[in-house]
Amino acid sequence: MSVPTARPTGGQSDHTLFLAIAGNIGVGKSTLTRHLAETWHLALLPEPVKQNPFLKLYYEDPKRWGLQSQLFFLAQRLRLFKEAGELQEAKIVDRTLYEDAEIFARIALPRTEYDVYRQLYEVLLENLPTPDLVVYLRASTRTLARRIQSRGRPYEKSLPASYLRKLNNRYDAWAKGFSRAPLITLDTDELDLFSLFGEYEQVTDTIALALQERGLSWQSTTTTLKRF
After folding, report:
1. Domain tally for the chain?
2. Domain span holding position 33
């Protein structure tokens, strides 16, 4: 299988597609990421939720375990982005390190801890690759709560609606001001991404169009990404 490449104008060197899916807990990131990876033959770099030994403890006692949980996520996400930069094939990542640092850590940590965390994040960010496109999936707090209950992760079922609402408000503000990479927002309240016959075609067409509008042509049959 040929290696998908993006050919920048102006004689720059080729690079492979780097797509990132962003969004709140329960919005459907993992489901969409798996679908795109299979449909577009992308290497999947998944969100390391199950590997975080502090996550369950954080949900039970946020003040005690916030810093440990966020540092673990930061280290894991940095590793994934570094791997993405070294991977010579088209790839997709489930959640970005930007969200961990600019949304979750900002909510989870007191100001003094967050200031130190943010300084470390900004330094480490300098040598990491930037996604060609970030797709922000959004949904109402009510939709998120329903989807969380449906997928049945025990440690998520106790998440209060107030926490999801706070995250949602932060996500929306973050998306509006985000400038580290191109970003599009997809409202998923009316989309069924979880059933066997979910509305994937509408979503993938929107993402493909967004890539084309940025000078990138994605051909899933040949797995070739080209710049016009």
Report:
1. 1
2. 18-227
